[in-house]
Amino acid sequence: GRYALVVAGDIAVYATGNARPTGGAGAVAMLVGPNAPLIFERGLRGTHMQHAYDFYKPDMVSEYPVVDGKLSIQCYLSALDRCYTVYRNKIHAQWQKEGTDRHFTLNDFGFMIFHSPYCKLVQKSVARLLLNDFLGDQNLETANGVFSGLEAFRDVKLEDTYFDRDVEKAFMKASAELFNQKTKASLLVSNQNGNMYTTSVYGCLASLLAQYSPEQLTGQRISVFSYGSGFAATLYSIRVTQDDTPGSALDKITASLSDLKTRLDSRKCVAPDVFAENMKIRQETHNLANYIPQCSVEDLFEGTWYLVCVDEKHRRTYARRPLMGDGPLEAGVEVVHPGTVCEQIPSPAKKVPRIPAATESEGVTVAISNGEH
Amino acid sequence: GRYALVVAGDIAVYATGNARPTGGAGAVAMLVGPNAPLIFERGLRGTHMQHAYDFYKPDMVSEYPVVDGKLSIQCYLSALDRCYTVYRNKIHAQWQKEGTDRHFTLNDFGFMIFHSPYCKLVQKSVARLLLNDFLGDQNLETANGVFSGLEAFRDVKLEDTYFDRDVEKAFMKASAELFNQKTKASLLVSNQNGNMYTTSVYGCLASLLAQYSPEQLTGQRISVFSYGSGFAATLYSIRVTQDDTPGSALDKITASLSDLKTRLDSRKCVAPDVFAENMKIRQETHNLANYIPQCSVEDLFEGTWYLVCVDEKHRRTYARRPLMGDGPLEAGVEVVHPGTVCEQIPSPAKKVPRIPAATESEGVTVAISNGEH
C-alpha cells in the first residue's frame, strides 16, 4: 500500500555549434504504487553498464558538456544491442517455463520508446533492433515481408555495423513502418522540446499516453530503453492495464495528458538570436554570487518558480508567478529564502505567501519528517 | 536471497583555517542481505529533512565547502531531537501493541553511534539525547541517579537550548558515563582519520566491531544517527545477532576488522607543513586538463589505485600499486584508461595487467551486464 514518488528533471544546454539546437529542459513526476495503469513486467529487465567518456561535464565552471559524438553513438547502439539480447534471453526463459517455444521479435512490442538525445538516433535504434531480430533468427523469411532483400546482410556482425551506412540504410528502410506504428508518436515531446536527459524517455511515455486512447493502449506491451552517459542502460517493458473503462486509472492518466500538445504550443516562440542572447546571459551569470537576475519574469507561465537573487554566500532565493485561478487568499508570490531576503525583489510585488516564510531564527522553510505527517 | 552492495566514500578537505584539521577521507563497502550479523530493526526509523544552507559547495572551481558553523550545529542538533522523538514514538507504539507500557530511554540502546563531523559534537549529541529523555518524562528521579541536580532545567525548551552553555555543561556532565560506555569506542576512526562525510557513521560502526568481542556485542541494540547537510537525517537502530559462536557471521565480521587500529597506525605521519603543501598542490591542480601528477607514488599502500594522468579532454587514467602478496602472474600495475594512454606513465613500470586493457576501437574497459554474469 505504500507509494514512491519519482522525480526526474534536467536542463540540456550546449555551447554554440551543432549540438546547441538539440538542447532542452524538462521534468517528470511519477507515482509508483499498486493498482497502476502501467505495470512493470517483472523479470524482464536487460541492463548493460560500461565505462566510457562519451558525454561528461569535466569543466566545473561551464554548464556545457564535453561530447564525443561518434563514441556516444557507438555506446548508445551497443548498449541497445546488449540490453535487447538480455531482454530476449529472459523472456525466452519465461516462455520456455510456460511451455511456449518461439522467438521473441519486435512484433511482441505494441510500442517502443527510447531515450532521445535527438530523434534521428531513435529512428536508427528501431532499425538497429530489427537488425538484431534479423541476425538472431537464421530461419527468417527473406523472400517476402519485412526482411525481403536483406539476405546480403545475413553474415554481418553487430559490432562491425555501428557506422555501416549500407546496413543502416537497408534496415532504416525495412523498419520504417515499424517506426511509424510503434515509435513515431512517442517523439512528440522530444521533437518539440529537445533533449531532457533524465526525463527524456518518460517524455516519450507521456507523448504516447497523450496521443492514444485508452482503447488503443489497453493490454499493450511498451518497451522502454533508458540510457545515461558514462554509461548505464536498461531495456525493460511496461504492460498497459486491461481496464480501459471510463473513470479507470488508465482513463485518468490519458485524460490528464490530453492537453500536452496544447501546452507545448502555448510556449512563446523567439528568434534564434534571442535564444542565443539568453544563453549568453546564462553562461555569464550562472555561477555568480551576489547577483540579481535582470530578466523579465512576465513571460513565465503562471505558477512558475524563478530565481530572485543569489546572495554573497551563493544562497539562492526563489519566488513564484501567481496562479491565475487562485482566489484572493491564494494569489501572490511565494518566496523561499535562506533566512535573509535579498535587498531587492523584482515585480510582481509580494502579496500573501502560500507557504509561511521562515522566521529569521530558523533560517529554513521546508521540512519533512516521517511518522508525523 | 539477493544481495545489495552499498559503497559510500568521500574526501573532506577544507580551506586553511579552523576547519582544516577536521578533514579526512574514507570509504566503506557494505553487503546487505539475509542472515546478516547486524539486523535493521524495521519500523523504527525516525527521519527529518529540512532546507538549510548549513554546509554546501557553491563554488564549482573549489573543492572546499562553505560552512555556516553555528547554523550547522543547530541543524544537526535539531535534527537529532526530531529523529529521536519520531524513533521513540514508533517504539512506544510497537511496545503498546505488545502490551508493554513504559518509557523508552537511552538505557535501551547498547551502543550509540553518530555522524561525526568532529568528536566533540558527538559528545554533545549524547548529552542532547539525555536532555530529550529528561524533558520527555516528568516523573524522572532527580534526587539521585543520572539526573540528580538537574531539576533547574525541568522547564527548558529544546529549541531554546542549542547554544545554552549551562544546559550543555550540565548534561555533558550527566551523560559522561553514558558516552564512555556506549559511544566513545565508536569514535576510533573519526578521531584518527577525521571527517569522512558519507562514510562517517559507518566508520563508527566499524570502530565498534573492531574493539568489542562477539560476546560483548551479541544481542545489543545499536542506535545509528546519520546526517547529511542540506539537510536530511535519520535515526535508526541495528540489532546485533544472537549467534556469537566461533565461525558465526558475527565472529567473521569482527575478525575482519580486528586489525583496524593496526591499519590506522601503519599510516605515515607527516608534519603539518608537508600536509599543507600537498593540499596546495591539490588545490592548484585538481581541475586541470592535460596534467600528469608529479607526486611520488612510493608512499601509497600496496593495491592503491592512483591517478596517472588527465588528458586534454579531462579523461582520467588510473594505475594501481602492486599487491605484494601477488604471484608473478598477478603482480604489476593495472591501468584503466580512456582509449588512449597518456604519453608518460610514472614508475613503477607496467607489467602484466590484471584486467586486460581495452582495445582502442572499444575505448572502454569496465562493463557490467545483468542476466549474463
UniProtKB/TrEMBL annotation, chains A, B:
Reaction catalyzed = acetoacetyl-CoA + acetyl-CoA + H2O = (3S)-3-hydroxy-3-methylglutaryl-CoA + CoA + H(+)
Q: Which UniProt keywords apply?
A: Cholesterol metabolism, Lipid biosynthesis, Lipid metabolism, Steroid biosynthesis, Steroid metabolism, Sterol biosynthesis, Sterol metabolism, Transferase
Where CoA is bound, by residue? Answer: N18, S72, K120, K124
Which GO molecular function, any one, fits this protein according to its record? hydroxymethylglutaryl-CoA synthase activity
The active-site annotation reads H115
Metabolic or biological pathway: Metabolic intermediate biosynthesis; (R)-mevalonate biosynthesis; (R)-mevalonate from acetyl-CoA: step 2/3
| Annotated transmembrane regions | none
Task: List, alphabetically, the InterPro entries matched.
Answer: HMG_CoA_synt_C_dom, HMG_CoA_synth_N, HMG_CoA_synthase_euk, Thiolase-like
Q: Is this entry keyworded Ligase?
A: no
- Give the matching Pfam families: HMG_CoA_synt_C (PF08540), HMG_CoA_synt_N (PF01154)
The Hydroxymethylglutaryl-coenzyme A synthase N-terminal domain sits at 1-37
Q: Which GO terms describe its biological process?
A: acetyl-CoA metabolic process; cholesterol metabolic process; farnesyl diphosphate biosynthetic process, mevalonate pathway; sterol biosynthetic process
Hydroxymethylglutaryl-coenzyme A synthase C-terminal domain sequence ranges: 38-321
Lineage, top-rank taxon, reads Eukaryota
Provide the family line. Answer: Belongs to the thiolase-like superfamily. HMG-CoA synthase family.
> What does this protein's UniProt record list under function?
Catalyzes the condensation of acetyl-CoA with acetoacetyl-CoA to form HMG-CoA.
Q: What is this protein called?
A: Hydroxymethylglutaryl-CoA synthase
Biological source species: Balaeniceps rex
